[in-house]
Amino acid sequence: MYQYRQIIVRLRQGDSIRGISQAKLADRKKIRLIRDVALKQGWLALDNALPSDDELAGFFKPKAVFITQSLALPYREQIETWIKQGIQASTIHATLQRLHGFAGSYNAVQRFVKDIKSQAPVTTMMLTFQPGECAQVDFGAGPLMINDATGELVKTWIFVMVLAWSRHMYAEVILHQDVETWLGCHRRAFEWFNGVPKKILIDNAKCAITKACYHDPVVQRSYGDFAESYGFIISACPPYDPQKKGRVEAGVKYVKNSFVPLRDFKGLHDANAQLKVWLLETAGNRIHGSTREQPLTLFATERHLLQLLPANPPDCARWEKVNVHAHCHVQFLKCHYSVPYSLVKQMLWLRASETTVRIYREHELIAIHPRLFNPGTKSTLSEHLSPDALAYGQHDAAWCLEQAQTVGPQCFNVIHALVTHTVMDFLRAAQSIIALQNKYGAERLEAACLRALVFDSGQYNTIKSILKKGLECSPVPDQDVFDTLTDIYTGKGRFCRDTSTLLQ
Fold it and tell me: Lesser CB count within 10 Å: N end or C end of the chain?
């Protein structure tokens, strides 16, 4: 009734209907209605008292608002259950049509859903932290800039860690969101603060949490070892609930909106150099909107309550599950590392630090290799290969010739012809011929090679067949016999074709 009283007061003061309307108290039609009632009741006379709110309410009753009943009302209980499950209005409408033959429109369901949500607003609690208790971490999109290594224009991200009590922050422009970058940013943030908070509140990034869950999240093994080494607790926000780390969410927006715009960056190194100066000169000395204090002023108190850094900084090691391939190697970042051949097709754990790669089966150390960084390279230990593969790799052409020399000159001639063939690679055949001496002896092998050379068939299957049938000691036919056989099959054979007539 306050609005009606103000209009009556201004009418008593002699204001015009136009003037009262321009003051946005009511439109002209309504002001005339109020004036007519006031004149009839004598309220405009200065000698008379102004009417009470009850009197005004008796003359100016609000119009009745008729609310139509929603067609979705009979299904209210079921719709409320679906809303709690996070199901959207369009799905609810389609399900009602399919299960109950619902005849209402989608807009009717949408209005009904909005009405239910407005009747039960979601309330939150402001989180409070003690000095040194917690830091919040998140990523944000960074500016496009030139990659120092390749010279290409690349997308960047901004890593931000905010101390929850003092609001002092560390930020860094990065190119990747992988595990190694995540751990490295943490280390540099702790060195920036010269201490470690007791708890790190994070989102469910893949580089930190492998399985997001409200009750039982699964931490990335690399991050878990890193947290144990530095002595902090990992606290993951529930899925789809980033509000629980609102201080770093605000910190990311502050960096993106205050530092990034209207700056030129020559590269990643230059961007991070400018960012560190900005953190100390601008961000650290601003009056924070919530604490009403400068973050660096509060940090002067909080820094003494952080946990001490380890005397020897732990490795930023990355853990990853790897499969052993048939060639007795595992692959990590396109580099290959050997493991014992008995573990082929098994799943192992690989731990990669800045200098070494260690491979484990459960908790048992299987192999250690130097860290490789060039894609396609491999680190192979000979004891990891199977005997067959090891023999093939070690028994090269030079080894075969050396072994054949110990057997005899005929064997050497056979092996030499195989390993120097200009078209085919007969290394396996040469290795197999040398291996025949283990079963038949060097003398028989030498005789078999002689017989094979006589017949101009120095192949593995020929020599093996000669030894198997014991033909290496059989007399070798003279050259005349071969000449006679040649004449039979080239000039005097029964079915020999006379080619002389073809030349006429």
Answer: C
Q: For position 162, which CATH number holds?
A: 3.30.420.10
Q: Considering just the CA atoms, what is the radius of gyration of the chain in Å?
A: 44
| φ, ψ dihedrals at 127, nearest 5° | -80, 140
- Within a domain: 504: no
- For 359, the enclosing helix (H) or strand (E) is strand 356-361
Together in a domain, 381 and 406? no
The model's pLDDT over 54-93, given as tens digits with 9 standing for 90+, comes to 888 888 776 655 567 888 999 999 999 998 888 999 999 9
Strand partners, 352: 318, 357
Helices 106-119 + 76-84 axis angle, to 10: 70
Going by C-alpha positions, the residue among 368, 362, 357 that lies closest to residue 333 is 357
For residues 286 and 220, membership in a common domain is answered with: yes
Please name the amino acid found at residue 444.
Answer: R
Verify that 277 and 177 share a domain, yes or no. Answer: yes
Query: Is 310 a member of any domain?
Result: no
pLDDT band at 107 (very low <50, low <70, confident <90, very high): very high
CB 49 within 8 A of CB 76: no
**Cβ distance 339 to 366 under 8 Å?**
yes
Query: What is the token pair recorded at 213?
Result: 């869950």
Q: Report phi then psi at 474, rounded to 5.
A: -70, 150
Single out the residue of 315, 390, 314 nearest to residue 356, CA to CA.
Answer: 315
Nearest-5° Cα angle at 339, 338 to 340: 130
Give the residue from 128, 198, 133, 188 showing the smallest Cα distance to 161. 188
Which tens digit of pLDDT belongs to each residue from 255-266? 999 999 999 998
CA separation, residue 295 to residues 139, 167, 290 (Å): 21, 5, 11
| DSSP string across 394-442 | HS-HHHHHHHHHHH-HHHHHHHHHHHT-SS---HHHHHHHHHTHHHH-H
The two tokens of residue 83 are: 């809303």
Q: Is the dihedral of CA 490, 492, 495, 501 positive or negative?
A: positive
User: Lowest mean pLDDT: which of 52-66, 310-324, 336-350?
Assistant: 52-66
Q: Characterize 19-39 residue by residue with b for buried, 16 or more Cβ atoms within 10 angstroms of its Cβ, and e for exposed.
A: ebbeeebbeeebbeebbebbe
Which contacts (CB < 8 Å, 24+ apart) does range 29-34 have? Answer: 31/7, 34/4, 34/7, 34/8, 34/60
Question: By percentage, how much of the chain surpasses pLDDT 90?
Answer: 48
Answer with the one of 333, 354, 385 that is the final residue of a domain: 385
Cα(448)–Cα(457) distance, integer angstroms: 11
Q: Percentage of the chain with pLDDT > 70?
A: 91
pLDDT in the model for residue 503 = 40
CA-CA distance, 300 to 198, in Å (whole number)?
17
Residue 335, pLDDT above cutoff 60: yes
Structure tokens at 202: 């994070």
Res 399 pLDDT > 90: no
